[in-house]
Amino acid sequence: MVLQKQNRTLYATAFLLAAFTVSHPLFSAPLPWETWQDLHRLPVLHQGSQTLLRSSHCPDGCRFDRHSEGDWRYIYVDGEEGTIFEESGAGAITRLWMTTGIGGVSTPLDSDVRLRIYLDGSSSPTLDVPLPALFDGSTPPFVSPLVGDRLTSSGGNFSYVPIPYRDGCRVSLVGADKTRLWYQVNFHRLGEAEDVTSFTGDEDLSTFADLLSQQGTDPWPPGSGSFSSGSVVLEPGTQHNLQTIEGHGSLTALILGVDPAQWSDVELRLTFDDQPTVQMRLEDFFAIGRVGPIPTRSLLIGLDAVDNLYSYFPMPFFENARIGLFHHGSAATTANYQVRIDNTEPLATSGLFGAQFRRTEATTTGIDFPTMVLDGHGKLVGTFLELGATIPGLRDYLEGDERIFVDHSPHPVIYGTGVEDAFNGGFYFDAGPFSRALHGAPYTELEVEGLPYTAAYRLMLTDGPTFESRLAAGLESGPTGNVSMAARSVTWFYRQQPTRLHLWDGVDLGSPTDRLNHRYKVDGPHTFKPLDALFEGEPPVSATGSGVYRPPGTASFVLTTHPTSTRFRIRQRLDAGMGGQRATILVGGKVAGRFPAVDINNARRWREVDIDLSSLAPAPTELQITVVAEAGPPDGDSDTFTAFRYELWADGEGSIFADGFESGDLLAWSGSGSAKN
Question: pTM of the full predicted structure?
Fold first, then answer.
């Protein structure tokens, strides 16, 4: 019987691993994408770090989220090169995804197209390779399992090789002007370059590669805690606590042997520091969904080779933890379990682990399906998504773009190109179901009552979106929000409840009074113009305002913050109808950050950009800010810099503004409504 096999395996594993109970030292690297060095660092919430996406999505919301002849997605063109990504300051690219194809089928990437990566302002590329060589494992350190092509990733090509940089990065394509290409670039934007070593191509990433080779098995090293094991009978309508822990520590393994027929009736309940953070049925929490051709078998969650449900997410707690199961079914069932607790005190900057579940039988067209909404300070580390058709044979539900908004901005930090693209596949997962350590699709066209269903998972080990006060994620319902679909989603995250950054001050450049109060001054010619436009997203948010348009040069103003503030973030609202805008931010005459080049969007011209300022010591209560607009790229409106509003977000208690100043009705995830200027 299945349960007997599970029971033998559970206790054998517990016997072998219980001997390793020594404390495991925490890896001290501060870089937010280096969680693979030690899984204890996955819950750590870093300061001065943002995680964003640059993609080939259609700028006016159309369904054609690709670069193609006559419809380029370049930021700008310089000679033979078309730039698809450019950043100023410190950070790292942590994920690259691309695909191409025709007639609804993926095809090999064009070897005549080259990809070049320039770092730290160098005029010579650090990397210059044909596109296929980036993903086929032939170019160290871009080797499997850190990379994979369309045959191993069901229609998509991906790389998780981290590419850090201290002072800017540019990614360009050569020979791609007539190529049809979909792409995504996930990256971190840092406020400080400290401890960042720029990519050379000689990096030893064997630790990362070894970790990703362990999907479906325990990825934790010996000494990651002590096991307790047991077997309980779950009666209908009752809860059984598997373990209660007082004091600090981390849950590093949870393994369950439960009859698969009961996965939809048994609910996992996790409480950390007296906060219920998980209350979800097993089929959802462990990313199973419906039983398809292959199981979810990822690095940190899924179903192992002997049908045990497993979670290896690190789950820290500082005061207590309770692990329980609740049975919703009508007949008693048995649960075999293993729980591993590491008594090492978690890092103080760790968030508590949690999960959210959302489900609907039919989404509302024109409105994104909300996959999660979270307040506080934290980061998203994974998602499981199941979508189904409401019309037989129609799989357009895979055309929707994912969008993530953070910290009350109406501009998305993540704007994808399609469902399967977000999970590193392509063309409706045209190579069928697959499972890898960080992503997979357990079923791609599973028929349920005559309707097709697709499920996919992705762990965001190095590239999870971060938020300081709020994260709101949604999925477009079909190609242009026009297809109703069945949807359910699971998201895994870490969070600290207090908001980390608050809005402390802001200057509306369309207001003469605001300009006077904040001592706004422009050196050189400039004009103030009104703008009535849209933000990116569906439905698009509208806003009106007046701002300054000027050539390269300087503008200065002051912003006031709390006396105890030590961290500062500047948010700029601008007109993206003028492409290539760049600027350096000075505080007190010293360089404190840079606004990166802006890709042009004439259809949805509003844009907001957040920049974390480098450390200011001693921290001032009034920031004297100078924005030095620089010459833009060779093409586009390179001599026009725009600004409509600057906001100062900082740490400290509370906010000095009423709700209306921040974003009006835009606190919801959906982007519906209008923005106040």
Answer: 0.93
